[in-house]
Automatic annotation (TrEMBL):
It comes from the Bacteria. This is Isocitrate dehydrogenase [NADP]. The keyword Metal-binding applies. SMART domains: Iso_dh. It comes from Candidatus Enterococcus moelleringii. The gene is icd.
Amino acid sequence: MTNTPIVPYIEGDSIGPEIWQATKNVVDTALELTYGGAKKIEWLEVLAGGKAFDQTGEWLPDETVTAIQKHKLAIKGPLNTPIGGGIRSLNVALRQTLDLYACVRPVRYFKGVPSPLKEPEKTEMTIFRENTEDVYAGIEFAAGSDEAKQLSDFLENTLGVTKIRFPETSSLGIKPISKEGSERLVKSAMDYAVAQELTRVTLVHKGNIMKFTEGGFKNWGYDMIEQDYPQAFTMNQYKKIAAENGEQAAEDALATARNEKKIVVDDVIADNLLQQILLYPEKFQVIATTNLNGDYISDALAAQVGGIGISPGANINYQSGHAIFEATHGTAPDIAGKGYANPCSLLLSATMLLDHLGWYEASQKITAAIEAAIEQKIVTKDFAQALGIQEVSTSQFADELIKLMK
Ligand code: NAI
């Protein structure tokens, strides 16, 4: 790995340029302070969204995708979803084109951030959301369309499906969930747990209702783990031991696994998980889940620890090495250009990029500065309003972080 990687960046729309500038200043300073010029990022601007459309007439120019393909890593601010014409979602297009199958969202609490929880510090986990399959594959047919009618006829006449309640007026969608897709996502979560020396991974699904898709995700996940991770003990194995040798033998095996610091892998139904992350968040360390569940869970957890202004994320293909690190919120047009935007979401995404490069010292420097700033009540308007204190602007916040790092 080079010490001067070229990393393409997409500034993003609306608040994008403000939070990008703040992020870039902080990251460049952290690298300079940590490595004195021996390691640095050469930023390469690539276009997408409104800026791309204004300059090239295209929302997502081919050169942008080519540059990310070539340089492997990229960072992006939020993009407006073009309305009328354009493509459906630039984010989805980028994820699909580069097959970025794991959406990784670490969730942690920064002391001092306004949170709706009494003990928000108990929420600390990383979500691995499958990013390429499920109802998000975009295979949908509008009610009344020829396609919906053909599909409905096929289901009824060829497959004998009689369960569509109102076939004439139903829109229809397809939910593909594959063995490969499930395995590679669960593997990402397991590898992360191994690398971070964590001891619990939870597969989240709705297999009680959707046995072959969501249930498949769970079963393929368990099977792969049992085959490839001798350092794990699954609740599937627990059940097998209980069935063969009784409950006590299974409990003993679980206790031994815990003593040996094995990774205990269990599974939880998605609706139950949404209760449990609120009631007992300390129980969870790594969550591996399907696309739609992951979408809901990520936002719920982000809200628990202070909201979207401080929630980072990355979309990664661990096999090809392609990864895009991104602010998880949208373009916030309501506050654009006012200096109100919190740059932490993009900045913490940048720390994930630094971790990905193995540049942990610089990443930790930034995280420590964010911790110190928030504890000292140096915050942007989103937090200041909730805390009833005076805010600093987006660029002032970046300047304060730089002072704290020095
Ligand atoms: P949004 O996330 O932009 O805004 C929701 C609320 O959160 C607003 O009140 C906004 O002011 C606030 N907010 C968001 N980021 C903030 C930050 N960094 N600091 C302080 N406050 C912040 O969601 P919305 O309004 O639904 O979407 C606006 C546009 O963003 C749409 O065009 C949407 O398609 C796009 N979008 C893009 C995403 C991406 O590029 N990853 C993700 C979600 C939405």
